[in-house]
Amino acid sequence: MKKQFAVIGLGRFGGSICRALSEQGMEVLAMDKNEDRVNEFASIATHAVIADTTDENVLKNLGVRNFDHVIVAIGEDIQSSILTTLMLKEVGVKHITVKAQNDYHEKVLRKIGADHVVHPERDMGRRIAHYIVSNNVLDYLELSDEYSIVEIKVNELLDGHSLIDLDVRAKYGLNIVAIKRGREIIVTPPAEDPLQKEDILIIIGADSDINRFEKKVM
Ligand code: ADP
């Protein structure tokens, strides 16, 4: 059976989740209290309804508890976001993802049992900071407070060296999990092969170790 999603709040964030889920062929119920927003998604989502989700009866009548995953993407209105999340939890929705506006909002959401709290502006800001500081860092994904995955471009310093030469596991405690070479992805990179300029190394490890490696090879 197809997974069923509901998205509450069709601003930039919720709207883009709704579009992406629909493009992937998922069943999506799109909800917003604003009629214009709902009309915009009428032809994109499986169903689009005008609903104020801070009203418990509205949520019950829509059968929200039957959805596999509900995304709460109410932006500015923190009170509505918290109340909606609380009621989704109460009716027994299995999986709830909520967008937080700030750290206090996040704290409350976690307390009331949101399964996944996202902070898109903060996270994107951090991610972008990483690749504007260093020309060789192409992307950066935070796994936890301490661990990340980074994509680092092979420059003159690394060009021609093999993974054995670099020995990042022993020297930095890092793992090179894959190499992107043009359109190809090498998932278990042979340790003896020389790296080529423009290869992209996908590296996993502790942030402090990644920083040491970046400083050494940049
Ligand atoms: P973004 O920063 O993602 O663009 P917005 O604040 O613009 O976020 O969008 C949030 C959306 O959530 C708006 O379309 C707003 O109408 C909707 N929204 C706010 N409160 C409620 C509510 N109680 N029930 C349903 N939708 C709501």
From TrEMBL:
InterPro entries: NAD(P)-bd_dom_sf (IPR036291), RCK_C (IPR006037), RCK_C_sf (IPR036721), RCK_N (IPR003148), Trk_Ktr_HKT_K-transport (IPR050721)
GO MF annotation terms: monoatomic cation transmembrane transporter activity
Domain RCK N-terminal, first and last residues per copy: 2-118
Highest rank taxon of the organism: Bacteria
One GO process term, biological-process aspect: potassium ion transport
SUPFAM superfamilies for the chain: NAD(P)-binding Rossmann-fold domains (SSF51735), TrkA C-terminal domain-like (SSF116726)
Name of the protein described by the UniProt record: TrkA family potassium uptake protein
